[in-house]
Amino acid sequence: MKNILNIWGGGQLMAFSGVDGKTDYENGLVLRSSFKTTALDVKIPGNAEIFFSTEKPSQLYLSGDVFSMGFEDNSVRGAFLDAFHLLIDGKCEIRNEDEKIRILSKGNKTLLGTAAFFRPELLDADISEAIEKRNSWIDKILKGRKKKGAFYKAVSQTKTQVYSPEGTIKHRWTTPDRWPHRQIWLWDSVFHAIGIRHLDASLAQDAILAVSDVQCEDGLIPLCASPYGKSAVTQPPVLALGTKLVNEMKPDKNFIKELYPKLKNYLEWDMKNRDTDSDGLLEWHIAQHVNCRSGESGMDNSPRFDAALNLGATDFNSMIALECEIMAEFAEELNFTEDIAYWQGKHKELCSLMNRYFWDTKSGFYYDWNNSSRSRTDVMASSGFLPLICGAATQEQAKILAGHIKNPETFGTELPVASIAKCCGKYYQKDMWRGPVWVNINWLIAMGFRRYGMNEISRYIIEKTTGEIEKYYDINGTLFEFFDDRREIPPPELLRKGKCAPEISPTHQALSDYGWTASLYIDMRT
Question: For the chain, which residues make up each domain, given as ranges?
């Protein structure tokens, strides 16, 4: 592991992983590297600062659960012993701890832990043995691989975002980040599993099954959930896609058989509850919060939703159509003959409706459908490429869409694929879904072009995306949530929901150590 994970930057997360043992959602320690100095800040369950130096280390190894640092007059190392304890060997200073944190020191060793579960005897644990244990999963996966530093970071980060079963969640599960999101999120978890399948196929299966664990009796799979509570709305349906891709890595008919009825109930819930005008097109739930009109869509603050209207949505219908297509494949594998025709019919119907309502011949693009005015909207968004993923577009339409990727008037930005086209400048901001580039959407768009045999444009999107991830890993040591399509502003300076103010709230800055950036980077670089 020498000479990897050696970039100090603020926002890197540390926690005990469910890969290694039992985690604790409420009480497990979560640390974050400081932006201001060489220190680790405790974020959960209380507050404390582990201070090392005002200077950056001359030698560094910083994974999600182990660190070693070298300074001119000091060397220090540390490792998580379990969910509640971090053991440190070397000079450090603990500052500003509150009542939820306990500290015990002897000689050069310091034990920091959760007060409610603190075990003083762990101060005498063998730190070399702890480091070896924490590194073993990563060492096994990375053995023989020659990859860029961002890949090692992605593997380490992916490990850190895994929880063990707890409460209503019966399988190992993943979160976009251990802080501030913490919970399980529907489409995030699927994208995590798609990357994890290349590292640990059984863990990828668990990540998918965990999403089904939080399903409601009526079929709804919530946007997010903790082991002890659930959201009342849903999120983009990509669960059948994730199931298919994970199963390709580790074929298991029982895995498909267990998930099939849950997937069926969920997709039917979507079709029943998200078609308010009964025209066959699905619409995202709309909220009134100006910076999050449609958290259900995942594109929280997109100008698509500025008017707070119900829209027949390009992304929702494309994803549902793809899920139906995959469900037909599952039904055939499981010999559910009646279901095969049902899912094939749904897929065909949705593709036909998308071309009738969403496709604009003049501009050669797919737009959302305004149910009130019975017309297409004027917002040209990255979601308009997603009819490619389900095969709704004809080969000619796919060629026209490909032309937009390098068209300087629409999506031909320095970094593709912008969330909003250049010609929609009145909506543009360097704020989440109002312009910046998102890794998961790029991954889906690249997959869509591959479906049409357009591998060159698919590779172009992937190379641009992975190159940007690597560029900012090399600078900041972390993998960011979204990136500037114009390449004018680095991720830490981009707006998030109206401002860039991490000193006020972590949700007002492009999040670092972000889950699907890591997992989809692994998929794109494998």
Answer: 13-142, 162-252, 274-391, 394-526
